[in-house]
Design brief:
Elements lengths: L3 H26 L5 H21 L5 H14 L7 H35 L6
Length: 122
């Protein structure tokens, strides 16, 4: 069975990867960041999101996801719009993490009740 938390968090990271990748041309054209630096930051963060999304089977990978959220907000110092988009993605990440944990906990309780032959908890 797939983990609800992993699925939700991986979805947020995948969409965030697109947004972070698109900050690269913005850094080059509007923020006058050197091309190499912009590629390393923008595409590096986008690639990190995708790699972390694949690593979410491990509990420690969620901490990397938290770090990416901090980096996305911090990118606002270079691309001011990221001061808006970064917190939005951080909120989506926190929601996906929290709701995913709740679903997993309730699913475990329902399976435990089923195995015990009792009706599932409300």
């Amino acid at each position: 069975m797939t983990s609800a938390r992993r699925s939700l968090c991986a979805t947020v990271l995948s969409v965030e990867a697109i947004t972070l990748g698109l900050t690269t041309p913005v850094m080059i054209t509007l923020a006058d960041v050197p091309v190499g630096t912009a590629l390393a930051i923008g595409l590096g963060l986008a690639a990190a999101c995708l790699v972390i999304a694949g690593l979410l089977r491990a509990e420690w990978a969620y901490w990397l996801g938290h770090a990416v959220q901090v980096a996305a907000v911090g990118l606002g110092f270079v691309v001011p719009l990221m001061f808006v988009l970064g917190p939005i993605f951080a909120l989506l990440w926190a929601t996906a993490y929290g709701v995913g944990r709740k679903i997993e906990r309730e699913r475990a309780e329902a399976y435990e009740a089923y195995d015990a032959g009792q009706p599932p908890p409300d």
